[in-house]
Amino acid sequence: MDSGDDKAIVDLVQLTKKAIREDGFLFLENYGVSLEQLHRQFALAQYLHCNISEEDQERLLFHPETSGKWAGYKHPWGFKRERMVYDGITQFNWYSKEWADCNLVPKCILPFMDEIVAFNVFLMESVNRRILALFSKVLELPDDYLWDNVQSHEGGPTGEGYFRHALFRPFTAEAEKLSKGLRFHGHCDYGTTTLLFSVPVTQLQIWGTDEQWRYVPYKAGALVVNIGETLEIVSGGHFKATRHRVFKPPADQVDVERLSLVQFNSSVGDLRMTPAKESPLIQREGLADYQGAFREFQKAMATGIPIPTNKEWREIQIAEMVNTTDSIRNAVGQDWIMQEGQLMNKREFHGVSVVLPV
Ligand SMILES: [Fe+2]
């Protein structure tokens, strides 16, 4: 990107174009965070999960159903405030309020907040901004188009997005049976980009063009970039939102814990996303008709329903998340359907339907 070598930049744009149209995700190396720096951030996440007091677990407990956010501490009994089946997943999520107020952060991690803030600022302002510049180039628009018009980056290190420390403890026999090995259903993230760090315990799977789930391979220090639904819509379907899920690891890793660090980057909440019509790529090639969020938003627009704002779109999906251990909702005739021989999860939010492989 900064080489000044025109051919290198053209090649990079072509490679990116292929990856985001066909695979829907990117694997980045040499993005400016050393393996040592990354290990330090993982150590801090481990420290938080080992040392958060019971008082802080209670005081900072999340309110997803009422807030539409994961802000705060997620207990290991599902994705609702009320305790359901034990799923072994704990998280701490920083949104703008947690960045701004040290009373909203576990006391044990306070001495290290400056390092966590600096890491997130770098990811947002250097890594994410450059990825968006590359995507703007693919749309043949000025480098800052997506940063200036779509990305939320005001009001804290992650704008309206958030940063997560997650710990996946091994499944209990009950949770594994109820969830059929799923820790997160197949889904797309709703924002711009999701920055995840490759970890040796393999659980993340991506839905390929061959309609199969595949584990993302481990590469020390690499960054996995998922594309969110906002970018699918802005690009008129030329970028595919990454369909992914979290599944139990291969047999030799079922008994180990897995730490995960994620920056979820978000679009500006008040916007209602539509394709960037000024893109020469969209003008020349038209809209891409691919079965995903973009097609569903188009259908909703055609029926005259106002499409949701980005804030409405993300908050309802969080508020109405279904646990993988919910054996009543996760069944054909309830949330699941069979479509062309594939088991799919079918939900509807604000009049827009979402159909994704389980
Ligand atoms: Fe995700």
Number of domains: 1
Could you state the CATH homologous superfamily? B-lactam Antibiotic, Isopenicillin N Synthase, Chain
CATH architecture level-2 label: Sandwich
What small molecules does this complex bind? Answer: fe (ii) ion
Shape: globular
In spatial order, strands of the major sheet run 1-9-6-11-4-3-2
Organism: Saitozyma podzolica
Protein name: Fe2OG dioxygenase domain-containing protein
GO molecular function: metal ion binding; oxidoreductase activity
InterPro entries: IPNS-like_FE2OG_OXY (IPR044861), IPNS-like_sf (IPR027443), Oxoglu/Fe-dep_dioxygenase_dom (IPR005123)
Characterization of the model:
The protein has a seven-stranded antiparallel sheet. Strands 5-10-7-8 form a four-stranded antiparallel sheet, with no helix packed on it. It is built from twelve helices and 14 strands. The longest helix has 26 residues, at 113-138. It has helices at residues 6-23, 35-51, 54-59, 64-67, 96-100, 113-138, 145-149, 173-179, 229-234, 280-285, 293-302, 310-319; strands at residues 25-28, 72-74, 89-94, 162-168, 182-187, 193-197, 204-207, 213-215, 223-227, 244-247, 258-264, 336-339, 342-349, 352-357. A hairpin with a 2-residue loop joins strand 12 (336-339) and strand 13 (342-349). The chain has one domain (6-357): Jelly Rolls, CATH 2.60.120. With 358 residues, it is an alpha+beta fold. The structure holds fe (ii) ion. Fe (ii) ion binds at residues 187, 189, 244.
